[in-house]
Write a structure and sequence with these properties.
The chain is mostly helical and about 110 residues long. It is built from 6 helices and no strands.
Length: about 110
């Protein structure tokens, strides 16, 4: 089995998370003038948790619960400190959040935010 760190590395995870948040920001840019309701900070946190969970499970499908929990915390921390995440409440719409929360993979979640 290939080491998850060698597949993604710290830089790869950061690029993936940054990419997700950038896609969310760009996808919503065109609709910022509309009356569509944006998500709350709590919903942004839920989105971040969901994305982190999916990424970790995809990277480490055979890992135990403790390892998964540790990796989710680390993944979430990296994303939370990213500048792009700070725009979540002004960029992500409720419909996008609902789609993302139902996504079965990180790729599907990202598509919800496009």
């Amino acid at each position: 089995m290939t080491n998850a760190h060698s597949l993604w590395g710290a830089k790869g995870r950061r690029i993936c998370v940054t990419g997700l948040l950038l896609v969310a920001s760009l996808a919503s840019f065109g609709s910022t003038m509309s009356c569509r309701k944006k998500v709350s900070q709590k919903q942004c946190d839920e989105l971040l948790d969901r994305f982190s969970e999916l990424v970790v499970k995809e990277r480490m499908p055979d890992a135990g619960a403790e390892t998964l929990a540790t990796e989710r915390v680390r993944e979430r921390g990296e994303a939370k400190s990213d500048d792009a995440f700070k725009n979540c409440t002004s960029e992500v719409q409720l419909e996008e959040h609902a789609c993302a929360m139902k996504a079965a993979s990180s790729e599907a979640l990202i598509k919800c935010l496009e």
